[in-house]
């Protein structure tokens, strides 16, 4: 964790900045399970901090970044199905955003490379200008986090299943995790194009309409001309249907 001093001097209390958003979801699981049944997910976006020794590659690797995570709680025997589901769902989402498919790839971790608690992990990678790197990871984390929270807090982390309301279990979790900064950089790289028009080279940013806050703007050239304003309103109305 990223430590810092709290107070006006270096002798103040030591505080720690969170390295991920996930643990807040696990710590509050005992509240979620009272209102929802398995399977269900909790999504969160927020700031995270890591003590990177060598921040580099523009916004790809930084000490402070925005992280988006989902903790999707499931029955233990369904983790392969839901792990595959989230890998494919995010792959399709990236394509929808306008990320080039020829620059994406899947990196399935071998068992020897998995974290000690993980049952599986698949990274979706992107071919950045500085090399192919992880864009996001989808991990099957088992029930390790809930077991540890249960041991340390004494709170019951078992939840009801939608199909068997009377049978409570400690769920497993699938965790899709993506850095917003890395995603933004991948969008810019995918949208960057060079072309030649009438012998003149130019650089073009071809962003997908799916990421545009405003898809179409209708601007009458002469605001005081009522006829043109009426035509503009009609065009806007037709486009809004």
TrEMBL record:
Residue span(s) of domain Aminoacyl-transfer RNA synthetases class-II family profile: 1-209
GO molecular function: ATP binding; glycine-tRNA ligase activity
Superkingdom of this protein's organism: Eukaryota
Annotated GO CC locations: cytoplasm
SUPFAM superfamilies per record: Class II aaRS and biotin synthetases
Keyword S-adenosyl-L-methionine belongs to the record: no
Keyword Repeat set for record: no
Pfam families hit by this protein: tRNA-synt_2b
Keyword tags: Aminoacyl-tRNA synthetase, ATP-binding, Ligase, Nucleotide-binding
GO terms (BP aspect): glycyl-tRNA aminoacylation
Protein name: Aminoacyl-transfer RNA synthetases class-II family profile domain-containing protein
Lineage: Eukaryota, Sar, Rhizaria, Cercozoa, Chlorarachniophyceae
